[in-house]
Amino acid sequence: MLKRQSELTLSPYTALYDILIPKDNELRRLNEMIDFSFIYQELLDRYSMGEGRTAIDPVVMFKYLYLKVRYNLSDRDLIERTKTDMAFKFFLGLAPEAEVIHPTLLTKFRRQRLKDMDILQLLIGKTVEIAIAKGVLKSKGLIVDATHTVSRFNLKSPVESLRQASKVLRKHLYQAKLAIKDILPDKPTGSDLEEEQTYTKNLIDTVKLHPEVAVANGVPEALHSLEEVVDDIEAGVAQSNDKDAKVGHKSKDTSFLGYKTHIAMTTDRIITAAVITTGEKGDGRFLKDLIELSRANGVDPDSVRGDHAYSGKDNLKLAEKENWKLYSRLTPNISNGFRGPDAEWDYNKDAGMFICPAGHTAIRKARTGKKNQGRNQKQTYYFDIERCQKCPLREGCYKVGAKSKTYSVTLKANVHQKQLEFEQTDEFKNEVKLRYQIEAKNAELKIKHGYGKCWSNDIQAMTLQGAITLFYANMERILTQTAKK
Questions:
Q1: Is the pTM of this model over 0.70?
Q2: 24 and 81 inside one domain
């Protein structure tokens, strides 16, 4: 049963908020700026209005998630802090003496109430609406890029994940009281998951039995992180760990297991659109989506800045057709030739290789043909034959018995002459330099808000994390800029 909470629960102690929380407090200003009732309206049909136990107001639950991202806290640490942080309670609409929720309710809210909801576009659209209304978003120039987020399991087995988290906890315990080594359970030496889980449980129980170290500097946070790893692994084992994460590339020689967030941001540094995909996807193909989503959110771009992953011929044609400028340096390797959309091959700028429709990355490349012979040269990409032989998409792509599988791209020196000439102008050189803004934004998302690692173990969880994180990033920018006026 859903019962809507009033703006602030009545209490004889409510006046404390006027004393303790200044007018310029970030959370107070956020409450005044945003009518969060849009969350309630979006989630209304996911609750029973007259049956069952009374549910926590979805607006309150959403605000908990906002605080989690804003202060980069685990679920347990967030709830512990909320018990004593008056600014948190004010933001949540709780009375100073009110009880807080149990951490597990946040997990249930994420997995059950927000499932199958297009919350990413909802939250970005809301912040863009506010930014326009407040006069913070004025530019129609976009900057595009993709940032990677590693899976919570990130190529590690559950045993390795538990051991790493346990190691961090033991480090803080030893710093607090070296003698505690004598009473901690013996570390397992094998690689059996059940044995590791038993050890972890005993370690957690031992720490909780010794309050003199359980509250020492760094121990509570490390303990809560270990408990969350335990919870994730228990859910992950049942769901085959992270079934959605895919291997992508940060560079030619460096890979990661996880996801990509393709972002469009104005030169005012307001994010206008985002698309979240698995890690192996290339960047350039999502430019059209980012443009369309930005328009849907109220920003019709007149220009786009991006790295050379976005300079494919389809994007150049799109820019010419829709009459906006593309500040992206050409690369001779980005082209899908005359293949249809069903056989789309992606160019991964980080690896410097093409990715086949099945998601496999080429293992090497070579240039064929002679220069200055009246014919265009080709760049040929070679794929792993063993993978091709087992690939579910091999029919019509790989010929049985073939000793190699290649993909060739014609290096067309003259086709993009117009863009090449544009690259030489002072306008292009100045505008393309603005790309640093989105690189700084990506670093901020990862370092400040924990966006470098996925909360849970599927793309649905990654999308929710992206929605909340990007919502906060935009609101932080809006609050900062309005404070200057």
A1: no
A2: yes
